[in-house]
Amino acid sequence: METRKFKDLTIRDAFMFAAVMSDPEICRRVLELALGIPISEVHIQTEKTMAYHSEYHGVRLDVYAADADRTRFNVEMQVTLQKFLPKRSRYYHDQIDMDALLAGDSYENLPDTYVIFICDFDPFGDGLYRYSTGMVCEETGKSVSDGVKTVYLNAHGRNRDGIPEELLQFLDYVKNTGRTEGISTTDPFVRHLQDSIDKIKQNRGMEERYMLLEEMMRNEKREGNTEGKQEFLLTALESKFSVPSELKEKIMSETDIEKLNLWFQLSLKVSSLEEFEQNM
Fold this sequence. Notes:
By secondary structure, the chain is of the alpha/beta class. It has helices at residues 14-21, 24-35, 85-100, 165-176, 188-201, 204-222, 226-238, 245-253, 257-267, 273-278, and strands spanning 43-50, 59-66, 72-78, 113-119, 130-134, 148-154. α3 (85-100) links the parallel β3 (72-78) and β4 (113-119).
């Protein structure tokens, strides 16, 4: 598959999506549009790595955020039809719970969690722009207050009735950007999104990170060995930070390919070495 040029990236591309969503105000507004509720100030981590044991499947969350009430939000851009998307949601919720509850804490301290998929396809085929799922008691039909909710946004919905205009404008933007000539909407948030992406594309440092990521992925297809991944990871880190010998040794001793992939993508997003080590 041909590598996409940096200047051609859109919000549907994972790299650009994580980059633009690192802006707290943009992330907060996307959450409000997706959930239909006001969101307080959010703290964000992009490309959040969760791998609790080498024998179990690790995950990389595109955007992981928390508000002042400790509510956790995971936002994912999905461009390819996923057959088992609800089961992926279940696993993401489980991983977030493990990250949120400290040893010895009571279960009542588990924060509410939302997993949000922004889909460039209709995940359930019913033509809705938004599908919301949660736990329901089958016998009574009443919702169960377990604090877990998944929202699927469909950029290719057909029934616009009852959907807020701002959400429709956002989903139209996700669907059309890069596929139609220009952005014709006057919606201020969509214009702000496009302006932010344009600024990111003018950032030489961001372009270099993207190119390094693409080179790593090409190398992975050619070689598929851990040594190459370790070296690419160190190169990415050393291009921005002074890497201590202890961290170098930890990276060079890691043989789990999936974990090295997650670490590499994390290295492209962090603004400090401390942030990288905290999220390894």
